[in-house]
Amino acid sequence: KAGVTQTPRYLIKTRGQQVTLSCSPISGHRSVSWYQQTPGQGLQFLFEYFSETQRNKGNFPGRFSGRQFSNSRSEMNVSTLELGDSALYLCASRLQGALHNEQFFGPGTRLTVL
Amino acid sequence: SQQGEEDPQALSIQEGENATMNCSYKTSINNLQWYRQNSGRGLVHLILIRSNEREKHSGRLRVTLDTSKKSSSLLITASRAADTASYFCATDRREGGSEKLVFGKGMKLTVNP
Hints:
The complex is a heterodimer.
Chain A: E1 5-7, E2 10-13, E3 19-24, E4 31-38, E5 42-50, E6 53-57, E7 64-68, E8 74-78, E9 87-94, E10 104-105, E11 109-113
Chain B: E1 5-7, E2 10-14, E3 19-24, E4 31-37, E5 43-50, E6 55-58, E7 61-66, E8 71-76, E9 85-95, E10 98-103, E11 107-112
């Protein structure tokens, strides 16, 4: 069974631009969560989608948004990029939405904002 | 603020030695999970321990949970160079109607051959 895939793996943008990241979960997994990882703040939860609906949300500004498609693939979008948005963005999928289920992480997208 | 806080933040040991990492948290939990991350890549789930469990084993890993002290420890026995990675604990948290996993800042383990 293929693992979680994320595209692109690396991305360089400039301030003010917007970016869309993509995540394909493991086949059959309906829950996709997104995390931002930075050296200063560590791993922070962005949001979770389950069956095309946002179920849970972290404490990020509205510039960060996401969606999930009927095939469970998910995208996240960051508008009006700021230097502080430079980070490793990780997505994780799991079979159901319950927190006691193991999450499977993708390799991440490294975003650099110049 | 971080729900889980790993301690120590960095540990360097020789191959064959045991490595112990500790995690403390602040609020009540249903379960606690440990993950490993190799150098800026995705996280790999290691083990989950439920709040009604005190100890769990998986291969060379041993996890303990003390809910009265709000702490957990991860022991890696007979360490190998391949165990070099960052290790994170994660706890479930419910706030504002949302559920999420809250990760600690991680502990960097270096196993020297």
